[in-house]
Amino acid sequence: MRYCCIIEPMTTVIFDVDGTLVDTRAAIYPAFREVIRHFPNQPQPAEEVIRKTLGNPDTVIWEMLLPLATEDERKAAFHLYQELVQRDFDLSQCLIPGVREMLQELHTLGYALTTASNCGEEYLNQVLDALDLRQYFTRPLCLESVGGTNKAQIIAEHLRVFPRDGAVMVGDRQVDVNAARANGIPAIGCAFGFGEDAELLGAATVVHHPSELPAAVKQLFAE
Fold first, then answer.
1. Is the CATH number 3.40.50.970 carried by domain 12-23+95-222?
2. Is the model's pTM score more than 0.85?
3. pLDDT, tens digit, for every residue of 100-122?
């Protein structure tokens, strides 16, 4: 469903999810390993490869994890992964410390908060509902929500509703910075996430803890 009207207030903070709001590595890494064991002819990826998958679209993730597999094998791996996540995923300890307080402060300030994640709708709903975060977000979107192939398309869909002049992307990976740039809005980099420092080059500013984010947003739009 597409919207055409502009929503107030003027300042809109668009959040990445993994590495920015939640740290799901303790649940995701074992699930990846379990799925890959079902494909014994495929090489086991190094821990660094698994780390670099986080924040990417699902198609890219399985290309990275199973580089020698066929497209059908990757699709099968993804569906198996979804089954494991639905059955065993425990989000109760995944919220990054300080995130809830940060969201509450931004919400109290009257900012519109939303999401732009490369995940699927089911995963996004799990995060928002299991951690009681939905109350903070207006029209949260992910890659599946917009039927897109990259994060820039999610932001573009948000900008059909929210004012471009007051929008900022918040994330921990280069893909977040690039998606913001593609849409002509600034990015705030999160150095506490999954990305390396070099990935945040080009961000308007970088924060090292969620508690620093409200001040960073205020400063960004005060200039």
1. no
2. yes
3. 999 999 999 999 999 999 998 98
